[in-house]
Amino acid sequence: MTKSKGVFARLNAWLDDEQSALERTMEAAQEQSAAPDLEQRSPAEIRWAQEELEEERRIEAAMAQWAEKKAAPAARRMYNALCVCMCLTMIALLLYTVTVLPAFGDPNHPINNEVSARYIEKGLQETGAVNIVTGMILDYRAFDTLGESTVLFTAAMVVLFLLRKDKESARYSQLAQAMDANPHSDTYYEPKNDIILQKTAVILVPIILILGVYVVLNGHLSPGGGFSGGAIMGAGLILYVTAFGFARMRRFFTYKTYQTVVLVALLTYALSKCYSFYTGANHIESVIPLGTPGAILSSGLILVLNICVGFIVTCTMYCFYAVFRKGEL
Amino acid sequence: MTVIVQLMLLFLIVCAIAVCVTKDLLTSVVIYMAYSMIMSIVWITMESPDLAITEAAVGAGITSLLFFLALKKIHAIDARNEVRRKHGEKQLGGERDDEE
User: Fold this and answer.
1) What angle do CA A81, A82, A83 make, to 5 degrees?
2) Would you say residue B27 lies in a domain?
3) Using CA atoms, how far apart are residues A316 and A151, in angstroms rounded to an integer?
4) Is residue B98 part of a domain?
5) What three-state secondary structure class fits A299?
6) A88, A147, A304, A326: most buried, per Cβ within 10 A?
7) How far is CA A204 from CA A56, A213, A227, in A?
8) Is residue A269 domain-shared with residue A317, that is, in the same domain?
9) Helix B64-73 and helix B76-86: axis angle, to 10°?
10) Sign of the alpha-carbon dihedral angle for A8, A13, A14, A20
11) What's the burial of A1, exposed, middle or buried (CB within 10 Å: 0-12/13-18/19+)?
């Protein structure tokens, strides 16, 4: 390996276990020094060495016996006793905490303070969302939701980084072929073209997808929103791919689609809210009218943000499933 | 109504203990799914339908699916099949379709 290669080439080489010239010479030197030359010793020295070796072996055997007969059972007993003690302590602590908590629905509950009162009283007027929960998470606390979407995005990135089988690398495609050919590979027993599953999926997938779209689009009017609707749509896609396979899924959803959709959704969210974040989120008048509460086109940006979050969650859920199962999208 | 809610809460406790006690990983994932479904109904009775939808979709649906996939990756489901074959029982998973 030459020094003219870039940092990434060297990182790749390190990941592929390639050795540099320096490492090779060092290992060769170690092997040479490790080999003892017995021929130069006298017979007496060899006998002493053998006796020493036997003595060492006797001691080792005795210690192993002691560890097996005495120490291991004692350690196991102590481990079990400590486990029980820890569990009992935790149970007692948690039960004690529960007894101190205020009752469910108590008006004097500490969470019933001026913040929630303000949300309930002014929420509809300020955000235009009939569903106060969505008004809260996508308007008052839109920054938190951006963070959550970014966390999902990062998680998907890490899963792709760790588990994706890269077709372009020669080493990984060999590994993938070897794994698939192995009778103990995890795709070996997979049933293919299951007729019951396919007939069920034909009926269920459209219903699930439409329910997901409804939950996303109605997020500001009825219970639900981007995250729940996205999870439902992701489940629909997973059912589709389980029934019909990755080849049919790739006709409309590839790695490229995943990249584009997630990037556009995340950027739309960030750009449409960045002005508000930049000014300290102190609620400057929005140029988008709030509209009549209860109409589908109302409550300003919340509908757009809901759609963005829905897309991110759908793609991430499907990506998790596909990469976990097959190593590619 | 309160009786039903209390029954469901009792079911949740039984499920939580059963998940710890079962030796078989596949069984404990199925119990976990049942726990999530009942939990989503409990959320509705506590007047938070938003959480109920999310719990049903994520808890009972996608998380369990990912658990199943993980079990498949570590051969926990295949090992089960091996044990069943040794005892002469019927296999759980479908056979491999060799035509493809």
Assistant:
1) 90
2) yes
3) 11
4) no
5) coil
6) A326
7) 70, 14, 20
8) yes
9) 60
10) negative
11) middle
ipTM above 0.90, yes or no: no
Which of B62, B72, B73 lies nearest to residue A231, judging by beta carbons?
B62
On whether the CB atoms of residues A214 and A221 are closer than 8 A, the answer is: no
Provide the phi-psi class of B4: left if phi over 0, else alpha when psi is between -120 and 50, else beta.
alpha
Per-residue pLDDT tens digits for B55-83: 999 988 899 999 988 888 777 776 666 66
Q: Do A225 and B81 touch (CB under 8 A)?
A: no
Residue A223 near residue A131 (C-beta atoms within 8 A): yes
Span B23-39, average pLDDT: 91
Q: Is residue B99 part of a domain?
A: no
Which residue, among A329, A310, A311, has the nearest Cα to A320 in the 3D structure? A329
Nearest to B29 by CA among B5, B51, B62: B62
- CA dist A105 and A63 (Å) reads 63
Give residue for tokens 């119990």: B31
- Do A80 and A196 belong to one domain? no
Mean pLDDT of chain A: 82
Q: Tell me if A234 and B62 make a contact (CB, 8 A cut-off).
A: yes
Residues A321, A319: Cα–Cα separation, whole Å:
5
For A288, how many CA atoms within 13 A lie in the half-sphere containing its CB?
15
Using a CB–CB cut-off of 8 Å, the residues of A that contact B are 104, 131, 133-134, 184, 186, 188-194, 215, 223-225, 227-228, 231-232, 234-235, 238, 317, 320-321, 324-325
Matching residue, tokens 């056979």: B95
Contacts of A104 in chain B (CB under 8 A): 46
Number of H helices, E strands in chain A: 13, 0
* Domain with A151 in it: 130-174+191-326
Distances (CA, A) of A139 to A28, A29, B67, B86: 65, 66, 34, 59
Residues A151 and A259 placed together within one structural domain of the fold: yes
> Is pLDDT of A48 > 50?
yes
Query: Which of the residues B9, B13, B65, B82 would you substitute to probe the A interface, choosing the one with the greatest number of A C-beta atoms within 10 Å?
Result: B65
Q: Letter for the amino acid at A140?
A: Y
Comparing B85 with A134, the larger pLDDT belongs to A134
Identify whether A106 is part of a domain. no
What single letter denotes the amino acid at residue B72?
K
CB contact under 8 A, B62 and A321: yes
Tell me the residue range of the domain where B69 lies: 2-86
B49/A223 Cβ within 8 A: yes
Q: Which of A224, A250, A227, A226 is nearest to A237 (CA)?
A: A250
